[in-house]
Amino acid sequence: MKRTAPCRDCRRPVLWTITEAGKRLAVDPEPNEAGNAACWRDGTGAWRSRRPTPDLPQTGWERLHMPHVATCPNRVQQLTLPGLPAGVASLDAHRRKKRR
After folding, report:
1. 27: closest CA among 47, 56, 44?
2. 73-91 residue pLDDT tens
3. Phi first, then psi: what are they for 94, rounded to 5°?
4. What are phi and psi of 16, to 5 degrees?
5. For residues 52 and 75, what is the distance between their CA atoms, to the nearest angstrom?
6. Contacts of 12 (CB under 8 A, 6+ apart)
7. φ, ψ of residue 93 in degrees (nearest 5)
8. Is-contact 73 10, C-beta < 8 A?
9. CA–CA dist 20, 1 (Å, integer)
């Protein structure tokens, strides 16, 4: 059973995982083959995630999930500014908010 929490921006359910670096990453709860976060549940029941590479490809017990920041309608709208090429996001507002 996946424990989900609502996103603060769009209120959609997200699954919080812990990356290899020990950081928290919100992913969409449903597996998505277009995603780039390989997620699995470890022995303690915690959801873990990592980015598969050619050296360490996805294993049988991992499922690909999409990071929620890529699908959150409010985040995409905040990060996309006019004048930037398609697929490029500006992180200036996020960085300014984080420094405070």
Report:
1. 47
2. 877 655 555 677 766 766 7
3. -65, -45
4. -90, 130
5. 24
6. 6, 28, 68, 72
7. -65, -40
8. yes
9. 22
Q: What does pTM read for this prediction?
A: 0.73
Tokens (6 digits) for 59: 């294993």
Are residues 39 and 62 in contact, defined by beta-carbon separation less than 8 angstroms?
yes
Q: Where are the beta strands (DSSP E) in the chain?
A: 5-6, 13-18, 24-27, 37-41, 47-50, 63-65
The dihedrals phi and psi of 18, each to the nearest 5 degrees, come to: -115, 125
Do 26 and 67 meet the contact criterion of CB atoms below 8 Å apart?
yes
3-state secondary structure of 18: strand
For 64-87, the DSSP string reads EE-BHHHH-HHHHHHH--TTSPTT
CB count within 10 Å of CB 58 equals 13
Residue 9: per-residue pLDDT: 84
Alpha-carbon distance of 98 to 95, in angstroms, equals: 5
Residue type, position 38, single letter: A
